[in-house]
C-alpha cells in the first residue's frame, strides 16, 4: 500500500495568543479593512515591464521582511488580530501572513482572474484503497477495493459532496488479513460490492450529474502519485478498460505542499502535512473516504493560505510525468463511460 497513509497523533490547540510584545506591522499600509474576517482571492498584477517590476512588489518585499523577523508568538498574535487561522508551525504562519498581505496589496483585475489561484471551480480528491500484502512482491497486482471522492468547491472553500463505493477484486478476491486490518474493509464488504467497471460507470455518472467538465472546470487531486499512475492504471488493465482521459492529469498535493511551504518532500506525508498545519486527523486512517476528507482539508487550508493549486502530474502512454509550472492550467475533460481495450 501507499507509504503516505499514516496514523495521526496530535493536534496543537488554536488558543488566543498573547498580545503583548508583538511587533506592529500595520505600517505596511495594506489597505485591509479593520477586523476583516475573510480573505477574498485577489489576483497578482501582471507588470508591463517584467514580473516584479511594479512598485507594489517593493512594498510586498518590505512587508515580507517585517514578517521574517517576527517570532512565532508575534505571528500568531498578528494572525489572530486579522482573524486568520493561528495554527501551524512558524514557516506555515509566515507563509499565511505573507499571502494575506500580498493579496491585500495587489489590485484586482478581471483580465487576470486566472491568477487568483482558482484555476478550477471544483477539485475532486481521490484516495483509493487497494488489495495488499504485508510484504508486496514487485509483481503484485493491486486491485482497487474502495473508490472515494471528496468534492471541493474552490469558490466557497468547502467540501460540498462525497462519493464512496467498495469494489470487488477479481484477480485476488480474498483479502489478506493484513489488508483487512489496515483498511478496515472486510471480506463481506467487497464480496457484496460490484466489480470495478460497474463502479467506474457510477463514478462517471456522479461526475456528470455535477456538470464537471461541461459547465464547471475541475481536476483531480491525490496524495502522491500512486493512486493514478499505479492503482488506477493497473486496475484498468486488469478490467480490460482504457485508462479514463479525465484522470490523466491531477494535482499531487505533496508536490504542491512542499513547493508552497518550502519543506522537503520527505516531510509531506499526510501525517506531517496535517501536523505542520496544526490539524488533527479526523476519522479512521486508511479508510479511503476518511483519508480523502483529510487530504481535502489540507487542500482547503492551502487555498486559504494563498496557494495556487494546479495540475502538476500526468500519465502519458502509461508513464508518470511531471507538468511544468509554466504550462497553462487545464481542467479535466468531461467524464465519459469507460471503453474496453481493443
From TrEMBL:
Its EC number is 3.1.13.1. Transmembrane segments: none annotated. The keyword Iron-sulfur does not apply. It catalyses: Exonucleolytic cleavage in the 3'- to 5'-direction to yield nucleoside 5'-phosphates. This is 3'-5' exoribonuclease 1. Residues 67-101 form the SAP domain. SMART domains: EXOIII, SAP. One of its GO terms (biological process) is rRNA processing. It is found in: Cytoplasm; Nucleus, Nucleolus. It comes from the Eukaryota. It is an enzyme of class 3 (hydrolase). Keywords: Cytoplasm, Exonuclease, Hydrolase, Magnesium, Metal-binding, Nuclease, Nucleus, Phosphoprotein, RNA-binding, RNA-mediated gene silencing, rRNA processing. Residues 326-342 have a biased composition (Pro residues). Its cofactor is Mg(2+). One of its GO terms (molecular function) is exoribonuclease II activity. Its main location: cytoplasm.
Amino acid at each position: 500500500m501507499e507509504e503516505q497513509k499514516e496514523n495521526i497523533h496530535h493536534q496543537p490547540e488554536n488558543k488566543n495568543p498573547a498580545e503583548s510584545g508583538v511587533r506592529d506591522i500595520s505600517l505596511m499600509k495594506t489597505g485591509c479593512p479593520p477586523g476583516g474576517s475573510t480573505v477574498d482571492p485577489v489576483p497578482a498584477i501582471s507588470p508591463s515591464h517584467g514580473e516584479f517590476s511594479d512598485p507594489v512588489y517593493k512594498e510586498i518585499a518590505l512587508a515580507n521582511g517585517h514578517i521574517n523577523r517576527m517570532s512565532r508568538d508575534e505571528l500568531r498574535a498578528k494572525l489572530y488580530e486579522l482573524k486568520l487561522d493561528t495554527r501551524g508551525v512558524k514557516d506555515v504562519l509566515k507563509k499565511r501572513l505573507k499571502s494575506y498581505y500580498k493579496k491585500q496589496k495587489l489590485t484586482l483585475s478581471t483580465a487576470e482572474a486566472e491568477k487568483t489561484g482558482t484555476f478550477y471551480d471544483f477539485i475532486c480528491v481521490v484516495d483509493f484503497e487497494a488489495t495488499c500484502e504485508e510484504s508486496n512482491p514487485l509483481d503484485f497486482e493491486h486491485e482497487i477495493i474502495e473508490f472515494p471522492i471528496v468534492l471541493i468547491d474552490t469558490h466557497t472553500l468547502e467540501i460540498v459532496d462525497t462519493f464512496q463505493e467498495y469494489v470487488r477484486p477479481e484477480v485476488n478476491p480474498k483479502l489478506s488479513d493484513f489488508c483487512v486490518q489496515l483498511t478496515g474493509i472486510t471480506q463481506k464488504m467487497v464480496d457484496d460490492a460490484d466489480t470495478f467497471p460497474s463502479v467506474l460507470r457510477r463514478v462517471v455518472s456522479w461526475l456528470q450529474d455535477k456538470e464537471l467538465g461541461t459547465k464547471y472546470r475541475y481536476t483531480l487531486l491525490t496524495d502522491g502519485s500512486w493512486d493514478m499512475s499505479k492503482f488506477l492504471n493497473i486496475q484498468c488493465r486488469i478490467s480490460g478498460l482504457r485508462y479514463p482521459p479525465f484522470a490523466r492529469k491531477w494535482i499531487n498535493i505533496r508536490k504542491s505542499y512542499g513547493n508552497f511551504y518550502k519543506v522537503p518532500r520527505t516531510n509531506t506525508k499526510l501525517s506531517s502535512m496535517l501536523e505542520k498545519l496544526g490539524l488533527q486527523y479526523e476519522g479512521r486512517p486508511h479508510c479511503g473516504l476518511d483519508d480523502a476528507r483529510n487530504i481535502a482539508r489540507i487542500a482547503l487550508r492551502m487555498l486559504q493560505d494563498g496557494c495556487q493549486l494546479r495540475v502538476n502530474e500526468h500519465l502519458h502512454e502509461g508513464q508518470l510525468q511531471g507538468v511544468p509550472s509554466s504550462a497553462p492550467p487545464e481542467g479535466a475533460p468531461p467524464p465519459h463511460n469507460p471503453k474496453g481495450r481493443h
